[in-house]
Amino acid sequence: MAKINPVSGYEPYLERVLISEAQLKGRVAELGAEISRDYAGLCPLLLCILRGGVMFLTDLMRSLSIPHHIDFMAVSSYGVGARVSSGSPRIVLDVNTDIAGRHVLLVEDIVDSGHTLDHVLRLLQTREPASLKVCVLLDKSERRVVDIPVAYRGFVIPDEFVFGYGLDVDELYRNLPFIGVLKQAYQ
Ligand code: PRP
User: Per the count of CB atoms within 10 A, which of 17, 61, 162, 172 is most buried?
Assistant: First the structure.
């Protein structure tokens, strides 16, 4: 596998743009409108799973027309530098909010095998939220190992290594405003 140069721009590594900035904006706006309708009067807690979900969360927040709270969790699923899910996620940072009786909406960048969300859902359910649902931007549905109830889904994507808009390649390029596919030589 060819190496990523950490001081280079993303261009040498980009195979193609999979989802453009305009497509992301349009879909996030649609999701925001749908969530605003469904959670009207409920002041949901948007619970973002770090780090990949951050850019999606901040755009989603701006597209919501209803009052809401935010909080964060960090789950280590791939291990530092690893690119394949270990299948045994670990909570690195727990949520700081008492979620008992709250309407919790988990916000994630991507669901792949489903191990991460399955682990988080099981843990949070024990804390008796009023409701617990999942909002993911990207769904690599063909890779699913564990079934996950996804209430809000941005895009179903093929089984390709994607980066940008919160998702990284070796911790780089999370800032890109689009979702790109990594060239095969670097996968
Ligand atoms: C990614 C993503 C999900 C998880 C999905 O996290 O943000 O949390 O993998 O994979 P799964 O469905 O197979 O469990 P990653 O470990 O890459 O961390 P990051 O969000 O900090 O980039």
Answer: 162
